[in-house]
Amino acid sequence: MSLDEGHKIELMYGLAGGALGWGVSPHFRCASLLVAPKFLGKEGRLYLLTYVLAAVYDGPITNMRHNLDEVIRSVGCTVELQINHSRQIWKVSTAPLRAVLHDMVGGRTLNAETRNVSQAFAGLNEQVASEAGYGVRRPRRAQGQRTPSTQQLYEQKTKLRCKCECDFSAQLVVQV
């Protein structure tokens, strides 16, 4: 039998007590013989059923409950690991974008790029704003007219410059 030491000792004491009772007392023999038919009756079956249910609850049902607790703990641990890994993957995958945004918010890169663009277009802005070399001043805007865009002004000045250059070239040819 696969019993632990405590149960083996209790079983030994019970058998020894039963043998001693049978050997010494006629009342014990009579009572034990009358107990056997009692177990076959209604109360006996109820007692045996209770004993069997207690044994089943102590064995497989307790084991199932323990296993269910382990499943719940395992699923909880797995979900927590997935959440942590998802968080780490998100941080790693967005790190370059965050670095760029951090630099832009910090203003160092954005201000440097803005300065570079402004310096690159400074000559063009001066040319658009300048009236030199065109021979014709910018016409005043009449009321109700909208202000021409920078692109329109640049196109107009380029056409005027070409006309002015052509007139100047024609004058040189005539003078030579």
From TrEMBL:
Name of the protein this chain belongs to: DC-STAMP domain containing 1
Superkingdom of this protein's organism: Eukaryota
Gene name tied to this protein: DCST1
Entries under InterPro entries matching the protein: CSR-E3_Ligase_Protein (IPR051856)
